[in-house]
Amino acid sequence: MEEWQGGSRATGSNVREAAILGRATTADLPSLARVLADAFAAYPWTRWSIPTEGYDARLEELQLLYLGHAHDHGLVFTDSSLRAVSAFLPPQAPQPSAALQERVAELHGDRLAQVYAVALPSAPAGAWTLATVGVSPLHQGRGLGVAVTRAGLETIDEYRAPVALETSSEGNVRLYRRLGFAVDAVTQIPDGPVVYSMSRAAGAEPSDNA
Questions:
Q1: Which of 39, 88, 99, 164 could form a disulfide with 5 if both were Cys (CB 3.0 to 4.6 A apart)?
Q2: Tens-place pLDDT, residues 20-61
Q3: Cβ-count burial 110-122 (b if 16+ within 10 Å, e if not)
Q4: Is 168 within 8 Å of 40 (Cβ atoms)?
Q5: In angstroms, how far is CA 88 from the centroid of its own chain?
């Protein structure tokens, strides 16, 4: 499940602050997992899908596992100070290893069955997945989330491929619309969060009216 926490529409000085971007290294991933854990602390999907006991530690380890998979098989972007991160997976990315899946299951604990029971619409054919976006709470509102997301979208546009995502934050929906995404479906999970399935056509122009 994707997340965007702490993002904002970048304009003026915000863009300049976020301009030094690049691909994350393996050494960056633990710090970026901490950024995501802080960003996701109150996110509806993670609060529903991860047990309360040890929530923070479980969330941080899950983010590190997912970032590692995206780093190995997709794209992970960050800024030079490791304040924000985005991760994208191509349609041909392999499934996580058996060991990784086993550890993910352990971290979800007694919530695992309800997570596996969720049925969401399929992404458009050939779509990349925007797996996660997060910004450190200490640096939110500066356009960093937009910047690291655009870095990935611009790279994927070179392949003329669509991008899909899922979010359980209505605020995120507005932000993603500004980057050219549209809502394809809305799923209410019983006793859980609402999930918005969104996609962006290759090269889609941002919307200023979202």
A1: 39
A2: 799 999 999 999 999 999 999 999 999 999 999 999 999 999
A3: ebeeebeebeeee
A4: no
A5: 8
